[in-house]
Amino acid sequence: MPSRPLGPAALLAGAVLVFAPLTGCSGGVDAPGPVVAAPPPPEKAFGQACTALSGNGGGGSLDALGGQPVLTAIDQTKDLGQLSALIKTAKAKDIFDSMENVTVFAPNDAAFGKLTEDQKKSLATQQGAGDLVRKLIVVRDLRKDDLQDKQYNSLQGAVIKATGSGEDYRIGGAQVLCGSIKTANARLAVLDTVPAFG
């Protein structure tokens, strides 16, 4: 005897039986998704030297640095020539290329001029240069509020202290000339002195 085709009511009942268990397992279509925290708003660079840096134009301006990897930003900033040379001596390019969301404390050229002859000789070696470069990196994206009387461990393991408020901040005793400079993969703070480390 040939089978009779199922009517619409029978097809609907079968569909309910198939899909009802799946709906129960998923918690229903109205189940809330995970709550995602909104990212913090962009922060402008701060400090007495930011105006001069912004006015340089070309590759070294703050607007241009925002789209550059941090090592490229350091290379293109005129007042960071000594730091750029230090990184090359340390052969630390791979470190900078692999970093994300870190903070680099960047002594300016005048800061390196304040070092003693013995300190300069030590920084002329790959080991000495590498030690200092790793001390200047904190593996955190430090915003302005994070510099108010806090201390952090550098990539090298040394303790670096941040103090200050308002527009006056110091890192290991060195004054922040221009802080919170955002690059593509890091945040820069230009310092007037090579900081002291704990």
Helix proportion of residues, in percent?
A: 25-40%
Cα-to-Cα separation, first versus last residue: 93 Å
Shape: globular
Count of separate DSSP helical elements? 9
Q: Detail the poorly predicted runs.
A: 8-28
Strand content: 15-25%
The helix-and-strand class reads alpha+beta
Quantity of strands, as a count: 7
pLDDT averaged over residues:
83
H/E element sequence: HHHHHHEHHHEEEEEE
Main β-sheet, in a few words? 7 strands, mixed
Oligomer: single chain
How would you portray this structure in words?
- The protein is 36% helix and 19% strand.
- The chain is built from 9 helices and 7 strands.
- It has helices at 8-26, 50-54, 62-65, 70-76, 81-90, 93-97, 109-113, 117-123, 126-135; strands at 102-107, 137-138, 150-153, 159-165, 168-171, 174-182, 186-191.
- Helix 5 (81-90) crosses helix 9 (126-135).
- The termini are far apart.
- The model is unreliable at 8-28 (pLDDT under 50).
Features:
7 strands; 198 residues; alpha+beta; 19% strand
Question: How would you summarize the topology of this molecule?
Answer:
Blueprint: H1 8-26, H2 50-54, H3 62-65, H4 70-76, H5 81-90, H6 93-97, E1 102-107, H7 109-113, H8 117-123, H9 126-135, E2 137-138, E3 150-153, E4 159-165, E5 168-171, E6 174-182, E7 186-191
Parallel strand pairs: 1-7
Antiparallel strand pairs: 1-2, 3-4, 4-5, 5-6, 6-7
Helix pairs in contact: 5-9
Give a nutshell description of this structure.
This protein is an alpha+beta fold. The protein has nine helices and seven strands.
